[in-house]
Amino acid sequence: MYGWTGNILRVNLTTKTYKKEAYSEEFAQTWVGGRGFAAKILYDELKAGTDPLGPDNKFIVALGPIAGIPAPNTGKAVVAAKSPLTGFYGDGNLGTRVSEHLRKAGYDALIVEGKADRPTMLYIEDDKVEFLPADAVWGQGTYATNDWIYAKYGKGVGVLNIGQGGENLIRYAVVRSLEGRAGGRPGMGAVMGSKLLKAIVVKGSRPIPQADPANMKALGQGDLKKVGRIDKETGWSIQSTTGVLSFCNEVAGLPVRNFRKTHHPDAWKIDGERLNNARIATYGCPNCTMRCGITIHDKEGRESELDYENIGLLGANLEIFDLPQVGSLNYLCDEYGLDTMSAGCVLGFYADAIDHGATSGDFKFGDAERAKELLRMAAHREGKVGNLLADGSLRMAREFGHGSEAYAMQVKGLDVAAYNCKFIPGQALAFGVAAIGAHHREAWIITFEIKHTTRESYGPEKAAKVIELQRIRGGMFEFLVACRFPWIELGWSLDNYPKYFKASTGLDWTLDDMWTRADRIYGLIKLHFLREFPDTTRKADYPPAVWFDPANADTEGPIAGKVLDAEKYDGLLQHYYDQRGYDRRGIPTKATLDKLGLGREAAAVEKYARLY
User: Are 313 and 348 in contact (CB under 8 A)?
Assistant: First the structure.
């Protein structure tokens, strides 16, 4: 078996034991890697009702058959667990040297079980595994923790760590690595914290098994240069992802004032041009030649690395249009190890709930200094307010009542990414049916919707586009594992990825073979959800209710007077179900599950939910 090491490392923090476990070629070809491995392992090894913050939950680091190999943007790893935020399968990816080092150590995945008896750092070097005390950095942020690790082992090692957010079980705490790299929006950092696992450090020295290493090296290194050249020709990295802000503001798709507004005259003050002008450094993931991490000095003079989601949700959504102040909010999220998207949504919801009388408080839109204090309180679960903010917008809304759940900007508990879909039906659907909750990673169809089709349409072509993008973005890139940006931003052909896959594994797969695996993984994640929420209805696949509320319509601008139509959205959702092979409840039919090879997995859900 080439392309895969054929091994998983299983570590138990309670007993301080570990073992190498072999997996079959059939398992590899069925689930491929990354998200596929993680979803399958967690499905098989967790019971329904497992406490996400209890010792029985498992923290997974999973890689794919091209992860870590020098080729365009392959320096990614998937982190996964049962989510403390959403209550079912959760994951995320982040750029990290772990992608290379764990594979060179001889493993395609790491399973962490149990709970340590003290703050612990897991050190993996080839066959050696050590459980080391991390008391020295427990209570400290991710920057100090990284520095402490680098001082011990050098900057070339692979690192995953958490800040105070993970330690204090903030439900949207993330896992951090390198400079501005973070992943695991649904609380993967809190799962590490619940296990008293402060950091994972990996150092590997073996070659990654490949079918044709000479060809893989030539192909991958040559294509890295090509991608870098295209980036320079197009100038994408001048603004990188932050160039989206001006576009969203122009087309009325920007989150402003807890998504109440869709554009703002001051948005230009924090846009990509201003960010580029303030740039002091640029960072990227391993094996990247189109680095997207633009770093500026924040209000306090610290280095803060920003992207579109940061400025959209910590800036425009909070009506804070002072770029250094947005940088400060982003720095605090990175330091504490908090998801910037959820943090922006939580703060926006809190200000909105105060405005609408659902709760009392002293936070107002535009108040950057109070926002900083609230982030600190959330990260430390300080007082009643800190505890509320730490649990995410859905739990906050259920605590506040007074109809506030309608404007808590989340789907299935995961806060919405920085795209205001008040009148963008296809992207609203993408959020509604995303595998883990409202994540733009799964499908981003705004440009297709606005530039290449009728914005007002709720037709089947939009459902088809969502599925197409789920197969690519939430599927292939998440199981291979690699970054999607060369394809999205630079037009790097998808046909390149079967070539990398073949050079690595020797298997001559087509893109259709990739889509088959993607559909299987999406089906399995749906079963994860049904196992935990057996009484679910199609309403679980709806975006926030405020997007359907005529009282929330813009009064001026390109979509004045327009909001999503609930009846038409329901029809669009049915188009998605029909094309996916789901019944009217949004549950895969028996024929679909059999086609996907999920009959055995579905049978295990039957005692919780009536599938057929």
Answer: yes
Q: How far apart are CA 183 and CA 339, in angstroms?
A: 8
In the structure, what pLDDT confidence band is assigned to residue 451 with cuts at 50, 70 and 90? confident
| Alpha carbons 240 and 565: distance in angstroms, whole number | 33
Cis peptide before 481 (omega within 30 of 0): yes
Assign 533 a pLDDT band (cuts: 50, 70, 90).
very high
Contact 204, 460 (CB under 8 A): no
pLDDT of residue 454: 84
Helices and strands, number each (H, E), in the chain:
26, 17
Q: Read off the tokens for 395.
A: 């739990």
Task: Give me the count of residues in the chain.
Answer: 612
Q: Residue 551 and residue 13: Cα distance in Å, rounded?
A: 52
* Cα–Cα distance for residue pair 103/124, rounded to 1 Å: 11
Confidence of residue 440 (pLDDT cuts 50, 70, 90): very high
pLDDT tens by residue, 293-346:
999 999 999 999 999 999 999 999 999 999 999 999 999 999 999 999 999 999
CB 175 within 8 A of CB 337: yes
Q: Cα separation of 155 and 283, whole Å?
A: 15
Residue written as tokens 């100038």? 235
- Would you state the structure tokens that stand for residue 168, as one six-digit string? 């204090």
Q: Helix H segments across 470-562?
A: 477-480, 485-490, 496-505, 511-532
| Per-position b or e across 163-176, b if 16+ CB within 10 A of its CB | bbbbbbbbbbbbbb
User: Which residues have CB under 8 Å from 530's CB, separation 6+?
Assistant: 536, 587, 605, 608, 609, 611
What is the distance between the alpha carbons of residues 197 and 114, in angstroms, rounded to a whole number?
A: 10
Name the average pLDDT for the chain: 96
The residue among 80, 81, 76, 62 whose CA lies nearest residue 5 is: 62
Rg (CA), the chain: 22
Longest dimension (CA), the chain: 65
Are the C-beta atoms of 296 and 275 separated by less than 8 Å? yes
CATH number of 7-203: 3.60.9.10
235-420 classified as CATH 2.60.40.10: no
The Cα 303–Cα 296 span in angstroms is 6
The pLDDT-based confidence of 609 (bands split at 50, 70, 90) is low
C-alpha 428, offset from chain centre = 17
Q: Which two tokens stand for residue 32?
A: 């491929």
Assess contact for 159 and 123: CB atoms under 8 A: no
Distance CA 523, CA 597 (A): 10
DSSP for 135-147, please give it: TTTTTS-HHHHHH
Which strand (E) or helix (H) includes residue 171? none
Domain ranges in the chain are 7-203, 235-420
How many Å apart are CA 173 and CA 188, to the nearest integer? 6
For the record, the structure tokens of 409 come out as 């900007």
Summarize pLDDT for 94-123 with one digit per residue, the tens: 999 999 999 999 999 999 999 999 999 999
Quick check: 437 and 414 in contact, CB under 8 A?
yes
Q: Residue 179's pLDDT is what?
A: 75
